[in-house]
Specification:
It is built from eleven helices and 13 strands. By secondary structure, the chain is an alpha/beta fold. The strands form two sheets. It has a seven-stranded mixed β-sheet with strand order 7-8-9-10-11-12-13. A six-stranded mixed β-sheet has the order 1-4-5-6-2-3, with helices on one face. α3 packs across α4, α4 crosses α11 and α9 runs parallel beside α10. It starts with 8 loop residues before the first helix and ends in a 12-residue tail after the last helix. The C terminus is likely disordered. Iron/sulfur cluster binds next to loops.
Length: about 425
């Protein structure tokens, strides 16, 4: 593996997650068309969105305490931005462009960024009220790393109508050329999260044909995921965060009490099996999401091995001790300790022949994507067959996505409803 961040952009992305970055006075992010640092409800928080060499999108901590001691500094030169370490330029970077719709309001008068924001190149929306672990009395039981309850009303609106969301989705399609929308909720009494999301999903699918993902706690009735598959949803994601049972109970008390780790794992497994049912031309993936840095690397690797063994794809975040959270004083992980985790992420996906990197036009800033982790592998080329398969899959998906988007646009213009995707089982 290349160990010099000047030649390994994935290692640089990981280093920046762990160390953050300082902004030199020469930087004028807003004036230069960059995105403001928004405290949206993206659980692990938001930093400065940058594009690294190799086209790797990232979200770099800037406001957290540890970022103030980072060896990495962002400078603006006469014609570009660059990251320097000890005064030496190590990588030219681009600011992730701020779309024009970021400065507009919906017809109901809300700033569009309070409805949804770009995370990399996809649109992330947290449509419902704040996760109820944050509002329990007498004592809240939120996950200790989470900032969702702190952000409420800051940069994100607590209630979003389907019409408001659709206005933002259409703006993001037209102006930001998004291909994917991700819906996210916390926990609600009565397990209402899928009921809340389905009207949004239905409209997005019908009016845009975009790829859609859903991230919620695991519903008790697993057949609800069969219904989501029939609705045309393309990705379901379950954030159990931690694979070690005792650490899970300590850091995620609400999740442990309401669902328990086993129910998360059952849902990941059930949904992974759904990929082999129904209309197989409609892409479908099951994700198990963990946070590296909250448990030993060996435990994160065990999680990756389990998730990939059942045909699901791991999403691996890097722990970020966000300002104001219960864990704000914790130390961020060291990049060197996490390299084996991300190396295993790539190798495990490749060994199992999982379709990583197939979704067209999706660059993710909040995590290192499995395909980006080839930079950590000692022999990425040995998986050339899988790489060829993925390329073919991506070409097919791109073709189908364009067709679905064209069809949805045409029918919406004519005021007709496109047929829901046909499911065969
Ligand atoms: S489930 Fe945990 S991580 Fe998710 S929003 Fe609630 S407190 Fe935050």
């Amino acid at each position: 593996m290349e160990t010099d961040v000047r030649r390994n952009p994935a290692l640089l992305k990981l280093e920046l997650y762990c160390s953050g970055i300082r902004l030199d006075d020469s930087c004028h992010v807003a004036e230069d068309g960059g995105r403001a640092v928004l405290r949206t409800r993206a659980g692990l928080g938001s930093g400065l969105e940058l594009v690294l060499p190799g086209g790797l999108w990232t979200n770099v901590p800037v406001t957290e305490r540890f970022a103030g001691a980072s060896p990495y500094v962002l400078h603006r030169t006469l014609d570009h931005y660059e990251i320097r370490r000890d005064g030496e330029a190590i990588a030219p970077v681009r600011l992730a462009p701020r779309p024009a719709w970021y400065d507009r309001t919906t017809s109901s008068g809300k700033p569009m960024t309070r409805i949804g924001t770009l995370q990399g190149t996809y649109l992330g929306i947290y449509p419902a009220r704040v996760c109820e672990y944050w509002t329990e009395k007498p004592e809240r039981s939120n996950c200790h790393f989470c900032s969702v309850g702190l952000n409420l009303g800051a940069d994100d609106d607590p209630e979003k109508s389907v019409d408001e969301v659709m206005e933002v989705v259409h703006a993001a399609v037209e102006e930001s050329r998004i291909t994917y929308v991700d819906f996210n909720t916390g926990h609600y009494e009565g397990e209402t999260y899928l009921d809340i999301l389905e009207p949004y999903v239905r409209r997005v699918k019908r009016e845009t044909g975009l790829l859609v993902g859903v991230q919620t706690p695991p519903h008790r009735d697993l057949t609800r995921y069969d219904a989501l598959r029939r609705l045309g949803v393309n990705r379901v994601s379950f954030c159990f965060e931690i694979f070690d049972a005792a650490t899970f109970r300590r850091i995620c008390p609400g999740k442990a009490r309401e669902y328990g780790l086993a129910r998360y794992l059952d849902a990941v497994q059930y949904c992974a099996a759904l990929a082999r049912t129904g209309n197989r031309t409609i892409p479908w993936v099951s994700n198990g999401e963990i946070i590296a840095g909250l448990e030993p690397a060996t435990s994160s690797i065990a999680a990756i091995d389990w998730i990939t063994s059942i045909g699901a794809i791991p999403t691996v975040c890097v722990f970020r001790p966000l300002a104001g959270t219960d864990m704000e004083d914790a130390e961020p992980p060291r990049a060197a300790d996490l390299v084996p985790v991300f190396r295993r992420l790539y190798d495990a996906c490749m060994e199992r022949g999982l379709p990583i990197g197939a979704a067209p036009g999706v660059n993710v800033s909040l995590v290192l994507l499995p395909e980006e982790c080839r930079w950590f592998s000692d022999a990425p080329r040995r998986h050339w067959r899988n790489a060829l398969r993925t390329r073919a899959l991506r070409a097919g998906l791109t073709w189908r996505l364009r067709r679905d988007m064209r069809r949805a646009r045409r029918l919406t213009r004519r005021g007709e409803s496109p047929r829901a995707p046909r499911a065969s089982g």
